[in-house]
Amino acid sequence: MAVCIIVVIVILLGFLFIKKHKRMSLVYTSIGFLSPYVCLPVGILFALIFASMGDGYEPGIRGGLTANLLTPIVSLVGSLLFVSEMKKQSKRWLLGIPLCIVFLLISIVSLPLLINTIFLTSVSSLFPDTDPILEILSVLMAPCAVLFLQSVPANQRELVKLPTLVVVIMSACALVGYCFGMTLHNTTMFIFVYPIIGICLLIVATKIDQ
Length: 210
Fold this sequence. Notes:
The N and C termini lie far apart (39 Å). The chain is globular and about 55 Å long. The protein is an all-alpha fold. Helix content is 75%, strand content 0%.
């Protein structure tokens, strides 16, 4: 059954590459910010897969955690595809790279736990506690999203002006919240602040030219 899970992941990532254009890449990028809402349906799917394996571990928790750990990987692929498109059209495409780097680092740091969750191993015990690193990276997602939106071509910057303003406000909330001990793991940040950034990316996806 573990092989089935790998196949599902490969198919999902393959689908991302097939849908290589700006709008869909923005949709995939937004998933990292919308994880509390995306993880529920996807987590149920993984829970059903894990339940069919019958290994005795709680499939609901395992499915939700797997879905949550996969979101930065999907967003990494989406952001890379978007930047690759911007490289052809915009002189400011480099502004999209910081968000790609953040998603890459989150994916790398989360990989041992993802392996643990899927294959029920103890790989993550070989590594030091990564929570402080994840907290810093989660805060950096917000300001990097501002730069990401500014990487669009000059003739489309007016379209992203309002969403960018909203993301700037959310970034300020994230930075202030971090100063007061609130991170992505905090309920307010997790359910409200970051999803608003994700919604802004989706709005841009509906407006931006193919």
